[in-house]
Amino acid sequence: MIRILFLSVLLAVMLPAVQAQQAASSNGKVIVMETSLGNIELLLYDDTPLHRDNMIKLIKNGYYDGQLFHRVINNFMIQGGDPHSKGAEKGQRLGTGGPGYTIEAEIREQYFHKKGALAAARQGDAVNPEKRSSGSQFYIVQGQVLNEAQLATLQTREVHDPFTPEEIETYTTIGGTPHLDDGYTVFGEVIRGLDVVDAIAVMPTDNNARPLDDIIFSIRLK
What is the CATH number of the domain that holds 57? Predict the structure, then answer.
């Protein structure tokens, strides 16, 4: 009787997590980023199909195998996707590589830069007014928790449109980088492994924000 009751309680605890995972899997493609500090699972959104399909294509071609996180800034984000990072010498400046094409922006108002958001890196507005994304470089938001006064300041300075209730709740609890909203395509999110993102973000770096100890990763489809 006690064993059955314990099993019932365990199932009740596990069921919401299982249902959430199933819901996530049915609304996008799950990928696994295997890093030297642990694995990060991410969901690629179905309603940013250009970015989803492009990353899946690159993954299938082994494009990301053995790359480095070449730019890491604590309380901000971790960045990878530069093919020049494979086997790069210590201290080599990275961040200019790509597959030779860009991707049309797919900026959706429902996706913002909460902690764990997966977004596409890109060149600045001066040379890229259409906000086209890099063909391969991406970043994962670590960010930080803000208070409502800080969010209000971003609105006052016209850095951000009025925040939705969901954005306020998210940015004041789990955090993120709201000043990037509406400027970059967010096309996925971490569904497991935020602790690994945090571990990578605090690694010591050089003056170009490259980790002093290489953080190697590969990506596979789940």
Answer: 2.40.100.10
